[in-house]
């Protein structure tokens, strides 16, 4: 990683936060551990993780558009990218990147000259190899229909049975046990965040963005504020939460309830998934 940073710094004349942003992705910085913390402490990583993720998404959009130059469907994709970035859609950079990537990969997979040549068969075979793009393809197919009148459909997804109350309860119980047995404070903190997300039906990203002002302990009760609503955290989750927060109280003076490794950062979704994966493999 340092070699990549140095090579760019030599080309541009000096190592700056911009150079770091160009050479290392947000995920690479997180995985860099002590090296990433060193860069942050020296002022080479600035802003919050949300700012860096947005900048990374913007660069990846630009890269995707530069890689389709000369393709017969380049103009259509660029028009699609412009529509995604318009004020009507009000999409986040991440959503724009994901939707654009799905459209580009489908067109590349289909080996067609234009969007009017796409068929339902192309989509069916594409989703067999890239099922993760399923939801991201709907905006592109809507764009194709609006611009060319070409109707396409995505094959129906197999209906999954909703988990029973007993299954959910067992999953929560397993997670509580895992938190109590977790070998490190970092693992406990990550698993507590996931537990709160499950119990209160709040997106994990929202839980990880909570600040210390969103939690209060009064008369032996622990409360959390999600948006404008305060909820009481019942036992034994209240003790697990209080313990996890006390672990992070001295984390570089962070205002975050679940701070990450870098200054101003909250714990990332990727970090939580890392600990969940370790739990699954145990």
TrEMBL record:
Provide the protein name.
Uncharacterized protein
Write down the species.
Answer: Sulfuritalea hydrogenivorans sk43H
